[in-house]
Amino acid sequence: MDFPNHGDAGASADAGGRRASLNAGDAGHSRHAAAPGGKHRGTDVPENFARGFISLGELALNGVQVSARATDLSTGRVLFSVDDHVAMPTASVGKVLLLIEVAARLNDAEFGLATMLERSVADAVGDSGVWQHLQVARLGVADLAALVGATSDNLATNVLIRAVGLHAVRARTEQLGLSRTALLDLVRDRRGPDDAPQLSVGSAKELTWLFTALARGEIVDAETSARVIGWLSLNTDLSLVASAFGLDPLAHRESDHGLLMVNKTGTTAGVRSEVGILRGPRAGVTYAVSMLFDDGQLMTRLAVLDGMRAVGADLLEYVH
């Protein structure tokens, strides 16, 4: 039940079975079936999601801006939502849109798996990722995408954006029908007045639709979707919602106690965001949770993390 190998030209064939294990139900649901409704559904919460919903409500009362949504992976039924139509800062979550564009281009003769890209001084950026600490200056496209999926590598992100063009990522995003979700800029150590104020934005409603469609092989085509899922399955950040799932952060590509998960997180000052898919013995869910808060006090940040974990605990109870 492991995920498809990233960068493998035969990944799409392997991924068919893996996607079936991620997606518990009918792969023929339309976008509208996967993302029904747009209104606030805070008064329509199944009992087994009450714990997380109460935690989010308490955070909102204390000044945290909250947006969240969870849908059943098989039926598309909305399990709970809180302001899921609002476009929120999502930090590195927007890198998923870059990975989609990269994956879609891998069949091009001039942009294949083995195409080597070299980092430059202009690409340099700190924080997340390991490439900045390695001696090798050139890596293949698929290797760079794997670094983005595994460690949200900022340097690899900037090199890939330079290679495909931010305009192409935006065009692909619009082509997918996303209007409240976007990768806005390169990764920067500091954002000036002429830069985009955030790396990315997204609505929980659109993000849950996007990940559901990826799991069903519906983003661009089955092979593209499988590659993106494969890269995301390497993610080592299980510190937010996924902290409740009990999985090994460094090795969770195979089923563990009947659980299979892919996710992407976004973290910066005052922002915590996660979107993912959790598949268990009883059901599967797609979820997205984003929070915007005053990060001046450690206790506020810890309360946000506790709230995200509470949502994760409810998701785990639903699928396991």
From TrEMBL:
Low complexity biased stretches: 7-21
Keyword line: Hydrolase
This protein's record includes keyword Flavoprotein: no
GO biological process terms, semicolon-separated: beta-lactam antibiotic catabolic process; response to antibiotic
Residue span of region Disordered: 1-42
Molecular function GO labels: beta-lactamase activity
Keyword Hydrolase belongs to the record: yes
Entries under Pfam families matching the protein: Beta-lactamase2 (PF13354)
Listed SUPFAM superfamilies: beta-lactamase/transpeptidase-like
Residue ranges occupied by any Beta-lactamase class A catalytic domain in the UniProt entry: 70-292
InterPro entries referenced in this protein's UniProt entry, alphabetically: Beta-lactam/transpept-like, Beta-lactam_cat, Beta-lactam_class-A
PANTHER family recorded: BETA-LACTAMASE (PTHR35333), BETA-LACTAMASE-TYPE TRANSPEPTIDASE FOLD CONTAINING PROTEIN (PTHR35333:SF3)
Name of the protein this chain belongs to: Serine hydrolase
Species, as recorded: Cryobacterium ruanii
